[in-house]
Amino acid sequence: MGKVYVVVGAGFRGFCDALQLIKEPGAKIYMVDREPFFGGISCSGKVRDFSVDKGVHMFDGITRELADNVTEIMDGRVRTIDFVSVSAFNGHLTEGFSLPDLSSLPDDTKTRITAELKLLAADAGKGGAPVPRNLRGLFEARYGATAGGIFAGIFQSIYHIDAKLVQPDAISKTSLGRLKHLDDPLMLALKASDPFLDAVLAARRQALGKVDELVSIYPDTGEAMRGWCVRARKWLEDRGVTMCLGQNIESIESTGDKVRLKTGAHTIDANRIIWTNDNTQALACLLGFDFDTRDLVSNTPMLFATLITRAEHIKDFTYLQNFDPEGKTYRTACAGIYSGQIDADGNSFVTCECPTPIDSERWNNPGQAHHAIWQECKALGIVSPDAELADHAVLRLPCTFKVAKLGYDEEIRAFEAEVGRRMRALIFRDVKPFFRRDIYLDSLRVRDLANA
Ligand SMILES: Cc1cc2nc3c(=O)[nH]c(=O)nc-3n(C[C@H](O)[C@H](O)[C@H](O)COP(=O)(O)OP(=O)(O)OC[C@H]3O[C@@H](n4cnc5c(N)ncnc54)[C@H](O)[C@@H]3O)c2cc1C
Q: What percentage of the chain has pLDDT greater than the value 70?
């Protein structure tokens, strides 16, 4: 008789852990989720008859091994995503680039940025630079005071929190990981002049060519990421995983060397519970102590607009990232086109993630936001000037890119220690890995953790 595992959370993290655990001979796996569907944030919603991902969700930059698994689950029906991105800053568009391009700034500003970068490079050669205490410090340590200040302003406009108040590792959830402030040939020359500059500077993707062996794929069934969610659930069920979806956990208690988890419909005696979501408050409550990291996380609320128009009026590209602090939209994707969804009337859709503080006027009146968002799509060239809006939906997403505020790491370590003290059979890992590639790589250690 093999071991019994309960995976709490049927999002991508839960999927990856289950994928590893089913490899253990004789193992029996249950997946529990309070939502009635599989896939968590990856599962697309419905707008009219279209399947719409809540944001830009892709298997981008994943390992060949994970790509093979996704392809098997999809019966081969995946398409390779060849990112065609555009970025906007300071009223300028840069084709083939998904970071802010500061090259339209005045020459004296760019000269100052270059001079500051060279000083940083010279200091980096000496070593011993202090570790930045917050994201603003990290921007300045990487890009200098001038460009660092501009990036902090962009961060504030998208994430609605001062970069001084968040941990430096928040950079991994942004598109602010490299700097470009000159034209491509000048950027390439500057990068080549010093290893520090090579690490922090960027030039357009095409100019660099293929940089690694990672793969970017997307479901090709016309159902967006929902297509993967539905099939991944069945694929796991076919391998003996029992899905307990739409069920709240009522209790978790130790029973000798096992642990008993009860939902309204199931009582499961397991060897290990693997907690795969960041709901620390719920876990603490189940284990009988108070803990809440909500004040230490900034959630980046967004209005999420789906704008339906004729397919031929939508620009043929993947997405545009708007880094203009005055912009209403942040990331706009031609999601209907790359997911292969064009209806009988020839309509498809774009999706726009629009950072919006909770309780702001726009947040409280989402129904009135679409007109301004549509006009911005036209101004940015995402849809043609004569495009007409056939239909739209605007959702409120209170949580998108969660970034850790200062102090989060200390609190979460204390939480991990307390969970370990109270219930050895429960495995909680802080949900630091964010992109699918990193989540998958992190899951490769779950069997070792479960058998420790
Ligand atoms: C807008 C957006 C776009 C993204 N785009 C990409 C991308 O293109 N490529 C990429 O690699 N990554 C992307 N990411 C990151 C990646 O999608 C996420 O990191 C990943 O999907 C998160 O998976 P998860 O399982 O941790 O969380 P979730 O998908 O949120 O799943 C957590 C699950 O736990 C359940 N749960 C929570 N509390 C409880 C409880 N008490 N009891 C039972 N169940 C519970 C929830 O219902 C949920 O189903 C994106 C993220 C966002 C926010």
A: 98
Confidence of residue 431 (pLDDT cuts 50, 70, 90): confident
Q: Which atom of ligand 1 is nearest to the CA of 54?
A: 1
Domain final residue, candidates 369, 386, 401: 401
Task: Kindly state the tokens that stand for 4.
Answer: 């019994």
Q: Are residues 176 and 312 in the same domain?
A: no
| Tokens found for residue 425 | 């059979």
Do 293 and 305 reside in the same domain of the chain? no
**pLDDT higher than threshold 70 for residue 208:** no
Instruction: Please indicate, yes or no, whether residues 270 and 385 belong to a single structural domain of this protein.
Output: no
CA of 226 to the centre of ligand 1 (A): 14
Q: What is the pLDDT of residue 222?
A: 96
Count of the separate structural domains present in the chain: 3
The protein residue with its alpha carbon nearest to ligand 1, atom 5, reads 57
Three-state DSSP state, 357: coil
CATH number for the domain harbouring residue 382 = 3.90.660.10
Written as one letter, the residue type at 93 is L
336 CA to centre of ligand 1 in angstroms: 21
Dist CA 89 CA 332 (whole Å): 14
Q: Given CA atoms 15, 58, 177, 362 in this order, what sign does their dihedral have? A: negative
Same domain, residue pair 412 and 292: yes
Which amino acids bring their CB within 6 angstroms of ligand 1? 8-14, 32-35, 40-42, 55-58, 60, 249, 276-277, 279, 282, 400-401, 431, 434-436
pLDDT in tens, 340-386: 999 999 999 999 999 999 999 999 999 889 999 999 999 999 999 99
Structural domain including 30 reads 4-38+227-297+405-451
Classify residue 62 by burial, with Cβ atoms within 10 Å: 0-12, 13-18, 19+: buried
> What would the two tokens of residue 417 be?
């220690």
Give me the pLDDT at residue 181, please.
Answer: 97
Mean pLDDT of 184-196: 94
